Amino acid sequence: MARIGSFLIILYLTYALTLCICDDDESNYGGDKGNLFPGFYRSSCPRAEEIVRSVVAKAVARETRMAASLMRLHFHDCFVQGCDGSLLLDTSGSIVTEKNSNPNSRSARGFEVVDEIKAALENECPNTVSCADALTLAARDSSVLTGGPSWMVPLGRRDSTSASLSGSNNNIPAPNNTFNTIVTRFNNQGLDLTDVVALSGSHTIGFSRCTSFRQRLYNQSGNGSPDRTLEQSYAANLRQRCPRSGGDQNLSELDINSAGRFDNSYFKNLIENMGLLNSDEVLFSSNEQSRELVKKYAEDQEEFFEQFAESMIKMGNISPLTGSSGEIRKNCRKINNS
């Protein structure tokens, strides 16, 4: 583990030194997202991105899994009320936390890292950088620190003063959803099938709980039979870690080949019928268009990386609060003056 940690720190330093200085003028991010642009904090908090990268790098060096956890927080945040940091709020006063929803309960993690990021930002430039932007940057850095693509992050989001438990329960795709349900839930956020497949590629890192894939092993269609699209030897290995009852929190790698490295092997696994979640495997087994995208990304990692970056920017632009809407929280877990 020490060797992995040292490698990640070196990768971070390389990334920090070679991060391209691109044209980040607001005019390049026009349209209805014109209030978001990469240089938003250039004057008000010029070290903001450096601070976020540093905290995330240390967290990922301590535990490689944290990269996937932070990316998942960003995804689950953006699918509920937009990318507004609502997921980060604890229950308080009129706020009912999204952390207790079915998709998040006992699985969403990384909140302490976000707290650490926010504390460092507040120390550098108080009341300036939103929790929503901090989480969006952390997701990008998590990709880079595990070997994945980088991208310029449009910034300028503000934080919500509300949360939606019902939105979290109803908007976020579930591991056992059908292909059509998954696509519909992405479409509802303005994301298309290409985004579905590319963003699902984030499952090249991280782990999932037994309770999220047990159905595939024992009772896929409600008739007591396993999912026949699951490769048999892989299924047998999973059953050793995920019994028919009990062991709900037991973890298995989302990508059996490289759970700690961001690459395109996830898509190669799908072709071999070795996707862990039902929501993974249906991308290959249920639709011709998505199947062709899986094949393309399995063959061409650069193509996947380019589309993943584009889709992450698109997801990060879902319904942001800008201007005078929302607030800049001092503490990501609670609204100001609460």
TrEMBL record:
<dbReference type="GO" id="GO:0046872">
    <property type="term" value="F:metal ion binding"/>
</dbReference>
<dbReference type="Pfam" id="PF00141">
    <property type="entry name" value="peroxidase"/>
</dbReference>
<feature type="active site" description="Proton acceptor">
    <location>
        <position position="76"/>
    </location>
</feature>
<dbReference type="GO" id="GO:0042744">
    <property type="term" value="P:hydrogen peroxide catabolic process"/>
</dbReference>
<feature type="disulfide bond">
    <location>
        <begin position="45"/>
        <end position="125"/>
    </location>
</feature>
<feature type="binding site">
    <location>
        <position position="255"/>
    </location>
    <ligand>
        <name>Ca(2+) 2</name>
    </ligand>
</feature>
<feature type="domain" description="Plant heme peroxidase family profile">
    <location>
        <begin position="35"/>
        <end position="336"/>
    </location>
</feature>
<keyword id="KW-0349">Heme</keyword>
<keyword id="KW-1015">Disulfide bond</keyword>
<feature type="binding site">
    <location>
        <position position="86"/>
    </location>
    <ligand>
        <name>Ca(2+) 1</name>
    </ligand>
</feature>
<feature type="site" description="Transition state stabilizer">
    <location>
        <position position="72"/>
    </location>
</feature>
<feature type="disulfide bond">
    <location>
        <begin position="210"/>
        <end position="242"/>
    </location>
</feature>
<keyword id="KW-0560">Oxidoreductase</keyword>
<feature type="binding site">
    <location>
        <position position="82"/>
    </location>
    <ligand>
        <name>Ca(2+) 1</name>
    </ligand>
</feature>
<feature type="binding site">
    <location>
        <position position="80"/>
    </location>
    <ligand>
        <name>Ca(2+) 1</name>
    </ligand>
</feature>
<comment type="similarity">
    <text>Belongs to the peroxidase family. Ascorbate peroxidase subfamily.</text>
</comment>
<feature type="binding site">
    <location>
        <position position="98"/>
    </location>
    <ligand>
        <name>Ca(2+) 1</name>
    </ligand>
</feature>
<dbReference type="InterPro" id="IPR000823">
    <property type="entry name" value="Peroxidase_pln"/>
</dbReference>
<feature type="binding site" description="axial binding residue">
    <location>
        <position position="203"/>
    </location>
    <ligand>
        <name>heme b</name>
    </ligand>
</feature>
<comment type="function">
    <text>Removal of H(2)O(2), oxidation of toxic reductants, biosynthesis and degradation of lignin, suberization, auxin catabolism, response to environmental stresses such as wounding, pathogen attack and oxidative stress. These functions might be dependent on each isozyme/isoform in each plant tissue.</text>
</comment>
<feature type="binding site">
    <location>
        <position position="77"/>
    </location>
    <ligand>
        <name>Ca(2+) 1</name>
    </ligand>
</feature>
<keyword id="KW-0575">Peroxidase</keyword>
<dbReference type="GO" id="GO:0140825">
    <property type="term" value="F:lactoperoxidase activity"/>
</dbReference>
<protein>
    <recommendedName>
        <fullName>Peroxidase</fullName>
        <ecNumber>1.11.1.7</ecNumber>
    </recommendedName>
</protein>
<dbReference type="InterPro" id="IPR019794">
    <property type="entry name" value="Peroxidases_AS"/>
</dbReference>
<feature type="binding site">
    <location>
        <position position="173"/>
    </location>
    <ligand>
        <name>substrate</name>
    </ligand>
</feature>
<comment type="similarity">
    <text>Belongs to the peroxidase family. Classical plant (class III) peroxidase subfamily.</text>
</comment>
<keyword id="KW-0376">Hydrogen peroxide</keyword>
<keyword id="KW-0408">Iron</keyword>
<feature type="binding site">
    <location>
        <position position="84"/>
    </location>
    <ligand>
        <name>Ca(2+) 1</name>
    </ligand>
</feature>
<feature type="signal peptide">
    <location>
        <begin position="1"/>
        <end position="16"/>
    </location>
</feature>
<feature type="binding site">
    <location>
        <position position="204"/>
    </location>
    <ligand>
        <name>Ca(2+) 2</name>
    </ligand>
</feature>
<keyword id="KW-0964">Secreted</keyword>
<dbReference type="GO" id="GO:0020037">
    <property type="term" value="F:heme binding"/>
</dbReference>
<dbReference type="InterPro" id="IPR010255">
    <property type="entry name" value="Haem_peroxidase_sf"/>
</dbReference>
<dbReference type="InterPro" id="IPR002016">
    <property type="entry name" value="Haem_peroxidase"/>
</dbReference>
<keyword id="KW-0479">Metal-binding</keyword>
<keyword id="KW-0325">Glycoprotein</keyword>
<feature type="disulfide bond">
    <location>
        <begin position="78"/>
        <end position="83"/>
    </location>
</feature>
<dbReference type="GO" id="GO:0006979">
    <property type="term" value="P:response to oxidative stress"/>
</dbReference>
<feature type="binding site">
    <location>
        <position position="263"/>
    </location>
    <ligand>
        <name>Ca(2+) 2</name>
    </ligand>
</feature>
<dbReference type="InterPro" id="IPR033905">
    <property type="entry name" value="Secretory_peroxidase"/>
</dbReference>
